Each structure stands twice: as C-alpha cells, then as structure tokens.
Hints:
2 copies of one chain form a homodimer.
Chain A: E1 6-8, E2 11-13, E3 19-20, E4 23-24, E5 29-30, E6 35-36, H1 40-57, H2 62-91, H3 95-118, E7 125-127, E8 141-147, E9 151-154, H4 168-176, E10 180-183, H5 189-205, E11 213-216, H6 222-229, E12 235-239, H7 242-253, E13 261-264, E14 270-273, H8 275-294, E15 306-310, H9 313-328, E16 332-333, H10 337-351, E17 357-361, E18 370-371, E19 374-379, H11 380-385, E20 397-403, H12 406-415, E21 419-425, H13 428-434, H14 436-443, E22 446-451, E23 490-496, E24 517-519, E25 522-524
Parallel strand pairs in A: 7-24, 9-10, 9-12, 10-11, 12-13, 14-15, 14-21, 15-20, 19-20, 21-22
Antiparallel strand pairs in A: 1-2, 3-6, 4-5, 7-8, 8-23, 16-18, 17-19, 24-25
Helix pairs in contact in A: 2-3, 2-5, 3-4, 8-9, 12-14
Amino acid sequence: MMIGKNYIGNKQSAQGSKNYKTFNPQLNRENEILFTEATPQEIDEAVYLASEAFKTFRTVSGEQKALFLNAIADEILALDDELIQTYCMESGLPEGRAKGERGRTVFQLRSFADLVKEGSWVEASIDTAQPDREPLPKPDLRKLLIPLGPVVVFGASNFPLAYSTAGGDTAAAFAAGCPVIVKSHPMHAGTGELVASAIIKAAEKTGMPNGVFSNLNSSGIEVGTKLVKHPQIKAVGFTGSIRGGRALYDLAAQREEPIPVFAEMGSVNPVVILPNALKNRGAALAKTYAGSITLGTGQFCTNPGLLLAIKSEALSNFVSELANEIAKIEPSCMLHPNIIGAYESNKSKMMAQKGLTVVSDVKKEVNANYARQAITTVEGHTFLENTNLHQEVFGPFSMVVQCKDANQLELIISKLEGQLTATLIAEEKEEAHDYSRIISALQNRVGRIIFNGVPTGVEVCPSMVHGGPYPASTDSRFTAVGINSIKRWVRPFSYQDWPNELLPQELKDENPLRILRQVNNMLTKDKI
Amino acid sequence: MMIGKNYIGNKQSAQGSKNYKTFNPQLNRENEILFTEATPQEIDEAVYLASEAFKTFRTVSGEQKALFLNAIADEILALDDELIQTYCMESGLPEGRAKGERGRTVFQLRSFADLVKEGSWVEASIDTAQPDREPLPKPDLRKLLIPLGPVVVFGASNFPLAYSTAGGDTAAAFAAGCPVIVKSHPMHAGTGELVASAIIKAAEKTGMPNGVFSNLNSSGIEVGTKLVKHPQIKAVGFTGSIRGGRALYDLAAQREEPIPVFAEMGSVNPVVILPNALKNRGAALAKTYAGSITLGTGQFCTNPGLLLAIKSEALSNFVSELANEIAKIEPSCMLHPNIIGAYESNKSKMMAQKGLTVVSDVKKEVNANYARQAITTVEGHTFLENTNLHQEVFGPFSMVVQCKDANQLELIISKLEGQLTATLIAEEKEEAHDYSRIISALQNRVGRIIFNGVPTGVEVCPSMVHGGPYPASTDSRFTAVGINSIKRWVRPFSYQDWPNELLPQELKDENPLRILRQVNNMLTKDKI
C-alpha cells in the first residue's frame, strides 16, 4: 500500500515538508496520495547506507545476487492489480501496456539473474607467471570486472516500470554489485513506491545489506542535483530529455572526482525510404508508419520523427497517404499535462518554421490531455539551412524531408545529430546495394540500423544496442538495453602474484564456479 | 632524417612561425633541430584528412589493419640507431631503456595486429529471428564493435616510444579503425617525428588512406586545445599530469558534443607493509624499495610514492635501512630541466609541510638535471589531517606513513584518492588473511593490486589493468595497457533484420572470418 514516503534503505521516512501529488491524465485530475520529497538529511542517509552496503554487497556471490533479482521480479508480480491500476492511474496508459511493460521489467530482472548466476560475465582473464622469462620474469596477472560503487538511477517519465525504479538501469547495477538509489519520477511516484517496496522486500528475504536500495521522492531538481554531486555516488543512469540528461552530465563532469553518467536522451530516428520501395509499396508503408508514429501516443524514444526520401511522384503520393492514414487514427492520452503542454508548444513552434508545410493536423475536439497527431513536410535545402527543424517534437509528430537527390539525402544524413536508430526502407537488398553511401552515412550517426521495419519496439536481447552518438546518449560506448548494459557500472581490476586462496572465486586456479575464462589467450572452463 | 616539420597526413608541412628545440638533459644543452609548431590551418587540415580517411579506414579488414600495424613495427625497427640516439638525446635516458621501450612498443603493435587479424575482438553477437513468437515476432539482431572516429593522442613525456607517437593509445586506435592525430610531446619532438615517418611509410606501403595519421608539433597548449575542441575529433588519449589531463577532460566535457577522454594521470601507488613481513625481512624490503623508488629516476607512473605501515621497532629499522639503501644509489638524470625543476620544487614544498621528517635527502653535488632522491616519514594522524601530503612528487621521492594501528591504516587507505596500483607486502598468505579489511579498502581505491612485489613494471598482457579510480584515470572502466585498451575507441552497433549479403563479414550467416561469436547465447565459430 502506498503511503507517500521515501525508502531510506528499508525504513519509510517522510521528514520533509515539500509535498506533491501525481496526476491522472485520463480523468484529468490529481490522484489522492500526497508524496513527501526527500530532505537533504534523508539523501545523505540514503547515500551513507549505500556506501556501507557496498562494502558487503560488492562481494556477494552471483548466485545470491540472482536470488535477489528473481525475488524482486516475484515481488513485483505479487503486487498484481494494485501495481497495474496505479501505473494506469499515473500514466494514462492502457492496462495492456502496463502488463506488457511489467512483463518486460520482470524479464530484464530474470535475464540479469541468469547472467550473474552463470558468472562468466566478469570477463575473467588469467596470464600465468613465467618466472624464467628473460630479461625479466613475467608475473602472474588475473583480471575481472568489479562494481563501481553506489549508482543513482533516475526514473523515466515514459516507462514507469521498464526504465524506472526496478528497470534496466537498476537491474544492471544490482547485477554488477552496485547499491542503487532511485530518484523517483514525480509523474509516477506511486508506481515507484510500490516497486520500491517490492525491492525492499526482496532484499530482506534474500539477506541483502540494508542500504542496497533507497527510493527518494522528488518533484524538482534539488534531490537529483544533490545526489549526482555527492562524493560517495560513483555513477548515474538517466533516461529522458536532452536538457535533463545534459544538466546531469555537466554536474558529474564538474565534480572534483568526475563520474560516468549514462544518459539516454533525444532522438528523431531518421527513416530513409528509397525510391523503388516508395513506388512499389508506398501505400502500405504509409499505413505502417502512421501506426509507428502514433504508437504509445508517440512517447517512445525510438519514435520515427523524421522521414527522408528523394522527391518523386511516389513520394507525393506517400505523403498524401500518410496524411490520410494518420488522420484515421484516434487521438490518445499523453502521460501528463506537462507532456501534452510541451508537445503542443513544440509542435506549434515547429509548424511556425519557415518553409514547413503541414499536411495533416488533426483539429477535432479531443479529451483533455489527448494528443492530436500531425505530419509535416519540408524541402531538403530548407532542412539543411535551419537546424531548428532537426529538433525532436516528443509525441505523435513526424516530418517528411523531400530531398532533391541522393547527394542531398547523404549530406542531410551527415549533418544529423547522433540518433538511437536509423531505418532503411528499400526494395529488398538490390536497392539497398545501390545506396551503400547512404547506409554508410546512417551508420555513422546511430546505434542501431533497421531494414524494412519500424524503429519502435526495442527487443531486449544481447545483440540490441540502445544508445548512440551524442545526443542520443552521453556515451556511445555503452547500451542501455540488454545484458551488456551491465558494463556501464563495472571496471576491470587486476591481481598481480596474488595467493590463490585469497583470490575471488572467479580467478582461483581450480575455477570453482566453472565459468568461461581467458587463460593465456585461450577461452576455457578448465582449471589452471 | 628529422627536419622539424609536422606531418599533415603524408605531407611534411611547416607553415607556422612558432619554433622550438628539444633539450639534451645529460649534456645540459639544446639539441640543434628547430621544430615548427602546427598552425590552426594545419590542424584543420589534419582533422579534415582524418575525417575523410575514416570513411574508408573504418571498413578496412582486420587482416589489412594487421599488415599496417606490423609494418609500423617494422619501420620503427628500421630506424635503428638514429631512433635510439635521438631518444637518448631527447630524454637523458640510457640506451638500454631506449631499446627496452622500443621492444615494448613493437610488441604492442604486433599484439594489436594479432588481435585484429584473428578478429573475434569485435564481440560479434547474433540473436536470430523468431517470426512466430507471440505476442510479437522477434526480429533478427546482430551486433559488433565499430570505431568511434578520429582520435587525438597526446605523447607522454616519460615514455617517448611506448606511450607516445606509436604507443599503446595509437596502436589501439588504429586496431579499432580510428585515424589518429598525435599531439607530439615537445620534449621529444625528434623521436616523435622519426616514429611518425615510420607510421607514414607503413601507411603508404600497406595502402591505408592519406590522413589515417598526422603528427603535429606543439610546444604549448594551443594545438592540443584546438584539437580536443574540434567537432570532428571523437575521442582523446592522454598520459601525463593530473592538471593536464583534467584540463583536457574539462574541454571535452564542455563541447556541444562531449567526447570520451581517457587520461591516465597521477598516482602515488601506496604500498602497505604488514607487521610480520616488516619484522622478518625489513632489510631486504628496504633494498628492494630503494631500487623501485629510484628506478628510471622515479619517472614511472607506478612509482611507489607512499609506504604505509603500523608503528613498531621493525618499522623504525626499516626506515633507517631504506634511508641507507637509497643514499647508496647514484643520482641519475631526469627527462628535462622542467621536470627536474618541478621535482625540486615539489620536493621542497612537501618537505616544508608540518610534521614531515626527512630521513634521507642526498645533498651531494650532482650533474645538472640529475635528481637527488629523498625519503620522508610522517605520523598517520598528520597524514590524515593534511591532504597536501597525499600529492604526488614526480621523481625519486617516497613517504613512509607511520600508522598508530590497523584501524588508522584502514582509515588512511579509505581517504586516499584513486590510484593505479596498490601493493601488499605480507608474510605470505597467512598474514594477508588477517588483514582482509585492509585489502578490501585497497581494492576500492586502485586498478591493480600486487602481492609481495613492487608496483614498477607494467606487464603488457590481456590481464593487466593500467588505470584506476580518478585521478589515476578519468574513467576507471577502461585500461590503457593491454589489448582491452581498444575498448576506449569503439562502440557497439546493431543491425536489425539486415540482409545477409549487406552485413559486415563479422556478422554474416556463414561466418567467413571464422571468428568466435555469441549466437543465441552460445559462443561458437559455427555458421548460422
């Protein structure tokens, strides 16, 4: 049951005087429960507990961490209807989405449980000694990945479960051996509190140290700012706006001891539609993209906000079809009045840009907080000249850039900011083959490239990259999705000539965990 | 033959009017050749060429990159005596060191050649499609590591070969597929130019694109600053002082598009000597450590600048022995008048700190630029109270901290800044076992921990970590030494539903390169 308090470790606490409520955008009214923002003292206590917890949590075995992660998944499922109802009440999203996102969250937790239980993820590497080597003996060196320390995770507005309290960042950090302090997202503080209660229960049931997790309520920027600047915090995970992510990145970079910030931020996810594909299946593509642009009311970070093609009659037909198809879709609810406010405002600003043509802009009356989708077009040279047109309009909005020719298309791609994804729509591989320079230009700007599909839908699997060149993320060398996202929270550590019995299990001669290790340049599960 | 010009790609160029010479510290006089600093136009041209070269270099096969890297090694060896003499003339280091460092440089280049020729380093990962999955089909996803783009490498004063022009950073960047622009170190511009000529020759012989490498002369901070701020530069490698590395890190973080800076910086490399070890072999340890502290005139980043022990008669004896042993060692030459100047100044400042006792300070007359080694001691509480005492004195200087008890020792360790290494000297594993909290505290502060050895000597092998928590490096998640240092310059990239024949070799169904890949969670060299 929600009570509006913070979790400072396993203790519920509400010492502050600053309160706020969440909002039900479908009913267009505030929800009842009053949340109490964390005070500076509560923040300090949460960080202190996390630092203390780190001393033991960082040595907890993979098997124990797996029990913890699976227990979190179990406790989240045990929240059952209360969680689903709270999620819907705080996000305006439908029950099906709530259940789907819960499924994904549980899947992520269990995937990390499997990863750490198996154990080879630490990339154990052993180079044995050569005492007789000339001119100098070679020492014995053994390496593995170890956790960075306490991590702060910022809940994301558009994924109350999968990218928030017990989402991918948190699951990866726990798997790594890092305590987590969540800065709860104010739009879904109740969902956050419920999931936090599940994590606390799981930690207690599986014997994790108090402080391995805290959940701090916050409606402004103060709590997050204080957390990121705290000397005992060693890394930050964030999903949200460029402005928010960059502010945290700057704070972290200006610390006496800078720390890594992995922020997954804005992206317009360019889609390049090649001429033959446009000619042969323009109508079908228009229908598919009308669906992708409006999916989840356009509130996915992989929403296709930019469609690029070379001018032709087929392109004109496609634009008309897209306008028709998108107008058929029923407007749907956005997450919060602030989100719809920003959408309406950004859409208006974009539509006021010189040279932009509005080809579809639903005008009919809609419920409060429901977003009206829109499609615009612009000439290639106009897009090149005005970088305002490159900005993301978060919501069901997309822009079709009509390029003069393939060279202009390539130039536009090379001028784009970094993106999470790009999509190539081609008449099978033959047409793609003719546009290899376009493909090459796209690859240089993004983290993932899709063939004849849509960018929405981020499969959680080891081969997924969710990240990309700035500003898609603050560090393109990592992914936010999939088991490799654990690498954001770990560092390599090496033991030289260390006695076998004092080594961690992963590096002992006898390989008691039976993990895969690189021994003198050979991958093996064998003993030394 | 040296001519004092920059390499802007394969063209020798000296359009600027700012000149400087290198210095022979052994002879205490300037060397003859006049080096011309790169102009802003030359910098822009080098970056332009690097960006253009990246378009093809990033797709060059591992086999071709291996030929290039091995050719660099060959060309460096072909420079023969001219290189060794120039190295010695510009560093004051002995010929044996020059040859040893050349051997290491060549070994590093060949290790990266082997790595990319074999090819599995790209961490190829494939998750095949499941078109019938419910509720949604699973797409085919395939991932590999790709290069970031043009990298700037700053030459290090203390390793004219192994951490400079064709050193570890450059070799790793080439292996990754990144063009490199070296900001040559002004103290060894001639050595740098010779090695640059070897790289250019190798690039031409193996058909690499012009601009894959440039070498820019620079005596101040302007060239480096402009390079790091250049929008087309995508990453930076640096080895040097905390002040220098932090300045570059700040510049990079303040860019519109922040880029990764891997700076390997200061470290005092704490050595903890446990009581029984001190009692049983204090004299031998004193001799060993006198050697380690003065090795290379104390100019290694792993120099043991801080010895920590619990007070006892044995510790007093050890301090006396260490003072005796170090006084026996002949002073030797530092790299440059600026380096010896900084050493003398920092040593004096340190010796002026309240509570510091000087137990050995060689006073005898020495040649110009020769460093006089020194040993000091301080009480544990004094060290805790005065963080000036935690600073590095780059050179043959060390401080023995006499701790009240094990608790104070642990507290001191927990208060230390991040370090490259820590060393534990124990009477075999039994004594180490009794001090597990000390070991745990050390691990939390460093990148590598050594048992009963010395920190000097950095073995180049896959299990080496050369890096550590800030300020040892700007990002503890990477190492500067060993093949894994390639990870600083690459990012994961994923293909979704991409046609097999358009995929890179590494990800094709038939696995034509026969590399090890993770396919549906199984490591295998098999085809799909």
